[in-house]
Write a structure and sequence with these properties.
Blueprint lengths: L2 H37 L1 H11 L7 H12 L4 H13 L4 H13 L2 H7 L4 H25 L23 H33 L2 H10 L1 H15 L3 H13 L4 H13 L2 H37 L1
């Protein structure tokens, strides 16, 4: 057996182990995410519309952050929805909380994150929730009488779930989700297998675990170019955590990754403009570092 064949066998071995460990979380995430999208999406958005008519002060921002997390839409679906909410009179601080938390987390990603363990899952939900609240609060106090978003040109997104048969609607939605995320899921497992084969666990511990401050900084930084899809990064995080990555570093990666995903940045640049876009980047990087340090202190 030559060198290449032997290495391919090793890589397949690690790939197969990762696939068996993560696959069912991905399947469950797809299934639950599609169910929410088909059967509960309108109810979630109706709750958000009703929120604009209630006089409950800062509580609106908290509720908006929760609704953003449970919304199943991607960024290019969230922004047109937010544009329609803005036209109906919803304030930018409430919209900011909804958009921010929607960027960071959704029901599918919550299910995927079960693979990382209970503690990491709870950390992910709490940090994303707080990040959404903080973004809304900052806009409330710093841009109270000034517009923050520019929604010109955005229209209500087309609804693809229009088939009369419920099972057909669900099946089509599930198929779109699998098509959109499947390749990234497999690529994530392959990259994880390559890490297992060629990157010593001690190196991961040294970068992401041994020195908490350095690990958080590195995780926040590497999350920017590496993140392509939530499901695709779960295998990587799973292996890094096994190899010694601190939960604080993982928290930073889980914040900067989706927040600076290239497709999300493209959509946000349109509604923010140059100056506000730079403020957004600065905010997410600063928040991810503070969150990572805080998690490291308390966990």
């Amino acid at each position: 057996m030559d060198f290449i064949q032997r290495e391919l066998i090793y890589i397949w071995y690690y790939f197969d182990i990762q696939f068996r460990q993560i696959f069912w979380y991905w399947v469950l995430g797809m299934s639950v995410g599609s169910a929410i999208s088909v059967f509960f999406k309108d109810k979630i958005h109706n709750c958000f519309v009703k929120l604009s008519n209630k006089k409950i002060g800062a509580a609106k921002i908290v509720i908006a952050s929760i609704l953003g997390i449970i919304s199943p839409l991607c960024m290019y679906g969230t922004i047109p929805i937010a544009a329609s909410f803005s036209k109906s009179g919803m304030k930018d601080d409430t919209l900011a909380a909804f958009i921010m938390s929607s960027i960071l987390l959704n029901p599918q990603l919550i299910i995927y994150s079960f693979a990382l363990g209970k503690v990491v899952l709870i950390v992910r939900i709490i940090t994303c929730f707080i990040c959404g609240i903080c973004s809304g609060m900052l806009i409330h106090f710093l841009y109270k009488n000034k517009p923050f978003f520019r929604f010109d040109g955005f229209q209500e997104p087309q609804n693809h779930d229009t088939a009369s048969n419920i099972l057909v609607r669900y099946t089509k939605n599930l198929g779109r989700n699998i098509k959109a995320t499947g390749i990234y899921f497999l690529i994530g497992i392959l990259i994880s297998a390559l890490f297992q084969r060629y990157v010593p666990a001690e190196a991961v511990t040294m970068i992401f675990g041994g020195n908490e401050a350095f690990g958080v900084l590195m995780a926040a930084t590497i999350g920017v170019p590496l993140y392509a899809c939530g499901g695709g990064t779960i295998p990587l995080l799973y292996q890094w955590l096994l190899d010694g990555m601190s939960i604080g570093s993982a928290a930073s990666f889980m914040l900067t990754g989706p927040a600076t995903k290239i497709t999300n940045l493209g959509a946000l640049k349109i509604i923010l403009g140059g100056r506000m876009f730079l403020l957004y980047i600065a905010y997410i990087m600063l928040f991810s570092l503070v969150a990572g340090f805080a998690v490291g202190v308390f966990i």
